[in-house]
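JOB MANIFEST
job_type = single_chain_structure
chain_count = 1
residues = 302
[input]
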Amino acid sequence: MSEVRPPAAHAELDAPLSSPPRSPMKIAWRRLMSNVFNVAALITVIVIILFSFAGPMFTPWDYDEEDDAAATFEAPSAHHWLGTDGNRRDILARVMLGGRISLLVGFIASAISVLIGIVYGAVSGFVGGWVDKAMMRFVDILYSIPLMLFVILLMVIIGPGLKSIFLALAFFYWLTMARIVRGQVLQLRQTEYILAARALGAGPVRIIFWHLIPNTLGPVIVTLTLNIPQAIFTEAYLSYLGLGVPAPMASWGTLANDGLQSMGRNPTLLIAASVAISLTMLAFNYLGDALRDAFDPRLHRD
C-alpha cells in the first residue's frame, strides 16, 4: 500500500516562515556595531558629551570661580586636578565649559544647516529646470564668500559672541548639505515609487517631504556627523584668533589660546584643550566614516 503524501499546499503551510525584512536603519546599525573601532569611536563621543554636560555636577568649582587660597598657575593637585590658570580658576571646570560651548556650536550649527540644506536641496532637485540652475548658482555665489570676512562682518553688526558664530557657521554649512540632498533627489525622482505617487495624485509637497527626503536620510546622517567636528574646529580656530566667546566664558579654542600664552608657567591648560579638540575631531570623523560605510549597500551583502 503506497504512502499518502500531503498536498503541496499543506507542505508550504508547514514550512518555516522566513524572517521579516529589516529596515535600512537596523541594517546600518548592525553593520556599525560589528566593528570594534566603530564602537570605540561611538563610546568616545558619548564620553566627551557626558564629560562636557554632566561633568560640572561632579566638580566643586565653577568655570569663573577664583580660588583665593590657590596660587596663580598652580600645578595639578588633589584640590585642582588640572591646576589653575592665571586668574586662579580651576582648569578642569573651564575645560568642561569649553566642551559645552564647542559641542553646542557643532550641534546647533549642524542642525540648522541640515534643516536648511535638506529643504533647499530637495526642492532644487525635484523641480529641476531653470529653477534648479538658479538655486545652484546662488549656492555657488555663497561658496565664494570667505568665512572669515563674513564672521568679522557679523561681529561688527551684532557684536562678538556665540550668536555671531552660530549665524556664520549655519550660513555656510548648509551649502554642502543642499548639494548632497539635491544629488540624491535627482536620482530618486524618476524611480517607480515616485512615479506611482504622482499617478495616485500626490502633490509636490507630499512627494518631497514624505517620499524623497526620508530616502535621503542615510547621506544626511553621514554628512551631519562629519559637519559637527568641522564646526567645532572652525569655532576653535575663530576663538583662537580672538573672534570667539567673550571672557569669562571660554571654548576649547580660547582655552588653547590662553594656554599657549601661559605654556611656560603651566602647560596643562594648553595640553588639556589640545587633547580635547583632537580627540573630539578624531572620534567624530571616524564615526562619520563608519556611518558612511554602514549606509553604503555596495560595500555589504546582507
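[summary]
Residues 113 and 173 are 5 Å apart (CA to CA).
The radius of gyration is 26 Å.
exit_status = 0
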